[in-house]
Design goal:
The protein is of the alpha/beta class. It contains 14 helices and 13 strands. The protein has one domain: TIM Barrel (Alpha-Beta Barrel). Strands 4-3-2-1-11-10-7-5 form an 8-stranded parallel sheet. Keywords: Carbohydrate metabolism, Cellulose degradation, Glycosidase, Hydrolase, Polysaccharide degradation.
């Protein structure tokens, strides 16, 4: 039987990201990002879709804050758009961009909701990418300057800070295989982008602390790695993939070292940066969606592993297998792996996409999402019962949004968005989560 009993102080929240919901890409002095460029490239986005309007959160944020207030969550995790603040990635900040986030944050605070701010959710300013992007060390220094601007402006109101969201995705999807912006296909030559993002994280933590930020953590996507068999070649492939997906980001932040499998691919002098990267954190954010299958590489494969699909589980419309118990296993593994180096954990993202439609009577039935939430929260509770210190849970996402290269087809929101009218319709899962949050 599911256990959905959580401590009264447990933090319930929802998450979004700037590029996926804001729209207004040409308004308020915002500069171009790599995703603006990528969406204009033929063949990169499903159905040729773009995010110029998205969910129009830039103009409709009062309505969205009212929805969160009705939901009863204690925290709203959002991201600042780096190109809305620093259109060139550096230099003098854009006053209109700062003013927009002043309005948003003030509105969230007035609703009694804690702002949880992510500085970077993949929308690198295009001029920064033109200068080398995450392949060059300078980007980490520019990011630290950006963090200082944001800390000075918003540390008095933002309750929790996350410098970078899921650097693994930027490194793998953006630079290694090119499915996401900036669309490069460098394979293992993309590993330096992981180090430069890790360094940016450490420098940003320092800058935020200097500005008076109170609670600083991270938000890394983590996936349990499942070998196809228990043979040593399969296990070796699993260890390599685990290093690439998980330990490349968690180990340097929590342990001050990189996994041995990746060291030869890191930039020269990387070890000198490790003390900066391993800044003490107030919390560790885990984003969980699915495990990753792996097998030994076949002939001609330039990588020391080969991906395989996870079969035998229901799937979301984003092609993710739904495996709740893997979340419990992931949290327990983190507890064992990092022990007293692991700060309190927040599930900073967990969610699912389905083909949600507004019914004739006006509601949105999404029983699969409710089941997903019940099962994953039960997995979190089981991990807590086994001793893992989990302090909060954020659903991805508040709103249906632009889902990167897949466009608008995957719907992750607790709230349905009609992309023609921009009408918001809370789904049944919104009502379910509202009851959980308010009754807990």
């Amino acid at each position: 039987m599911e256990n959905l009993s959580f401590p009264r102080e447990f933090l319930w929240g929802v998450s979004t990201s700037a590029f996926q919901i804001e729209g207004a890409v040409d308004e308020g002095g915002r500069g171009p990002s790599i995703w603006d460029t990528f969406t204009k490239t033929p063949g990169k986005i499903a159905n040729g879709e773009h995010a110029r309007v998205a969910a129009d959160h830039y103009h409709r944020y009062p309505e969205d804050v009212a929805l969160m207030s009705d939901l009863g969550v204690g925290a709203y995790r959002f991201s600042f758009a780096w190109p809305r603040i620093l259109p060139d990635g550096k230099g003098a900040p854009n006053a209109e961009g700062l003013a927009f986030y002043d309005r948003l944050i003030d509105s969230v605070c007035e609703a009694g909701i804690a702002p949880v701010a992510t500085l970077y959710h993949w929308d690198t300013p295009q001029p920064v990418e033109d200068a080398g992007g995450w392949l060059v060390r300078d980007t980490a220094e520019w990011f630290a300057e950006y963090a200082a601007v944001m800390g000075e402006r918003f540390a008095d109101r933002v309750k929790m800070w996350i410098p970078l969201n899921e650097p693994m995705v930027m490194s793998i999807y953006g630079y290694a295989i090119g499915e996401y912006a900036p669309g490069k296909a460098l394979l293992l030559d993309a590993v330096p982008t992981a180090h430069h993002q890790n360094l940016a994280h450490g420098l940003a933590v320092q800058a935020l602390r200097a500005a008076g930020a109170a609670s600083i953590g991270t938000a890394n996507n983590h996936s349990p790695v499942w070998p196809e068999t228990g043979t040593e070649p399969e296990n070796a492939a699993a260890r390599w993939l685990d290093a690439l997906l998980n330990r490349l980001y968690a180990d340097p932040v929590l342990l001050g070292r990189y996994p041995g499998e990746l060291v030869e691919h890191l930039p020269a002098g990387f070890a000198d940066d490790l003390p900066t990267i391993a800044q003490p954190l107030d919390f560790y954010g885990v984003n969980y969606y699915e495990p990753q299958g792996v097998k030994a590489p076949g002939p001609g494969n330039p990588l020391p592993f080969e991906l395989r699909p996870i079969e035998g589980f229901p799937m979301t419309t984003n092609d993710s297998p739904i495996v709740p118990h893997a979340l419990r296993d992931l949290l327990l593994d983190f507890q064992g792996r990092y022990a007293d180096r692991l700060p309190p954990i927040y599930l900073t993202e967990n969610g699912c996409s389905f083909d949600d439609r507004v019914a004739e009577e006006g509601g949105v039935r999404d029983p699969e999402r409710i089941d997903f939430l019940v099962e994953h929260l039960s997995a979190v509770r089981a991990a807590m019962d086994a001793g893992v210190d989990v302090r909060g849970y954020f659903v991805w996402s508040l709103l249906d949004n632009f889902e990167w290269s897949k466009g608008y087809a995957p719907r992750f929101g607790l709230v349905h968005v009609d992309y023609e009218t921009l009408r918001r319709t809370p789904k049944d899962s919104f009502a379910w989560y509202r009851k959980l949050v308010r009754d807990d």
